[in-house]
Amino acid sequence: MAYLGRLNYDKGIDIAVKISLTTGIPLKIAGEVRPHEYDAKKIFDEKVKPYLGRNIEYIGPINDSQKQEFLGNALCLLMPNRWEEPFGIVMIGSLSAGTPVIGTNKGAIPEVIDNGINGFVCNSYSEMIDSIKNINAIDRKKCREKAVKEFSKEKFIKNILNMYKSIVLKTY
After folding, report:
1. Are 82 and 59 in contact (CB under 8 A)?
2. Coil, helix or strand for 120?
């Protein structure tokens, strides 16, 4: 399993570690602990660091060119958010690599993830554990198809142009 993002309470890094410990499935963590974020260092020191080496590996921050391989080689991406994340671009990266996402029913996660199609949207910790047991039912090609269809550069440009046209037409 993969976790990619800031290592803090809101992003649920401690939940990702707990999921790995519960399931016995290895977890690779990529991201950074930002010392200015409330309790981030404390959560890392108390909820992550003690478990490193027990099928849990912290590789630190990675750059954009490393993300595709990191996500593409994962069983799934864990997004155990506690906050209403407005978008979560890491989900798009995961889907474009053909990797399903397991996330909480918060913010944009249910807008990006089609439950049971390209990942699972969960309302509880036990649902996240059950989702991992069913992760192989997700077709990785469908993950990639969703990313290409809905989040490609071409689609983004088309949407921006349509938005500008509608603004200009309303102005005149």
Report:
1. no
2. strand
Which contiguous run of DSSP H or E holds residue 66?
helix 64-72
pTM to 2 decimals?
Answer: 0.92
pLDDT at 172: 63
Give the pLDDT score at 68.
94
Assess contact for 147 and 95: CB atoms under 8 A. Answer: yes
139: CB partners within 8 A, 6+ apart: none
- H/E element, 154: helix 153-171
Residue type present at position 107: G
Query: Nearest-5° angle of CA 16, CA 53, CA 61?
Result: 60
135-172 pLDDT tens trace: 999 999 999 999 999 988 898 899 899 999 989 888 66
